[in-house]
Design brief:
Elements lengths: L1 E6 L3 E7 L5 E8 L8 H9 L2 H6 L5 E6 L5 H14 L4 E6 H9 L5 E6 L3 E6 L4 E2 L15 H13 L5 H10 L4 H9 L4 H14 L4 H19 L10 E4 L1 H5 L1 H10 L6 E3 L3 H11 L2
Parallel strand pairs: 1-4, 4-5, 6-9, 9-10
Antiparallel strand pairs: 1-2, 2-3, 6-7, 7-8
Helix pairs in contact: 1-3, 4-12, 5-8, 9-11
């Protein structure tokens, strides 16, 4: 049995294949970002999922692509956790950026961007990824990501920059007490996931002028920091992965056009494309 997993900070999509690469089942767990989730919790999120626990001894290969897996230390943490669960499996752990590449451009050169709970980008030359800058996560970077927009919404609410009508709706949907926010931000695990939960509010009010302006500003910042430094031409294919890009694709396209660039494709959930890539390219 082979397990293939595409993991962001919020969730991980798992698909099990047999030796003929036929799908056996699929399941979703909470995010497994080893850079922010404690080791014990990483283990619990896997073993508390019946479908995975039930087949742990049968799994021969795990191909895991995840947020937070871009540097050696967190990769080793996740490797040790998985090795203690999938004891008979050969483990392959790579960052989610590589899954984004495989799910969009495949083996073809392209600029590939992620706009989900976090954000990132790379240029793929057909063989290797080239990162313009290392990602330092939700506190310092992650422009135009879910946690970026969650942070902006909370700040605008508290600084009273949010229109009253929108603020009233925001209050109905979230506990905005200062103590609640500080507890979740500074005393609980996954503050990036907590911030990103506020970004869902934008989907409901995506036609509102305030929300559209907020999104546009975030996308402009992302292009400034994560797209333009690659100096790609208008012929370069550009792909985006993630729900933020998917639901606000019209605004994203307009921002790209202002820089004489166009978006080749947007993939909301890359797992199905990733499976096809594995079936065609990986033995």
């Amino acid at each position: 049995m082979i397990l293939i997993a595409d993991g962001g900070s919020t969730k991980v999509d798992w698909i099990a294949l047999n030796d003929k690469k036929e799908e056996l089942f699929r399941v979703r767990t909470l995010g497994l970002n080893p850079a922010v989730v404690p080791e014990e919790e990483l283990s619990n999120r896997i073993t508390n999922t019946f479908q995975l626990l039930n087949v742990k001894d049968e799994v021969k290969e795990v191909h895991f692509y995840g947020a937070g897996c871009g540097t050696p230390k967190p990769v080793m943490i996740l490797h040790n956790v998985m090795k203690s669960i999938f004891i008979n499996a050969e483990l392959h752990i790579a960052e989610d950026m590589l899954a984004a590449v495989y799910a969009s451009s495949g083996n073809n050169p392209a600029l590939v961007c992620i706009l989900g709970t976090g954000s990132n980008s790379c240029y793929y030359d057909g063989n290797e990824m080239h990162m313009n800058v290392a990602s330092l996560g939700y506190s310092l970077m992650d422009e135009a990501s879910g946690n970026y927009f969650g942070k902006q919404l909370i700040r605008d609410y508290y600084y009273k920059r949010m229109p009253k009508r929108i603020a009233a709706e925001f209050e109905k949907q979230y506990d905005l007490e200062a103590d609640t926010i500080k507890f979740n931000m500074y005393r609980q695990p996954n503050p990036n996931m907590y911030l990103a939960s506020f970004a869902r509010f934008m989907f409901e009010f995506k036609t509102d002028k305030y929300i559209k302006k907020l999104i546009k500003k975030g996308f402009q910042e992302f292009f400034k920091c994560r797209v333009l430094p690659y100096h790609v031409s208008e012929e370069t294919p550009i792909y985006f992965i993630g729900s933020i890009a998917y639901y606000f694709g019209d605004i994203l396209e307009k921002v790209a056009n202002k820089h004489a660039l166009s978006i080749t494709g947007i993939v909301q959930r890359p797992i199905d494309n990733l499976i096809e890539y594995h079936r065609e390219n990986i033995n």
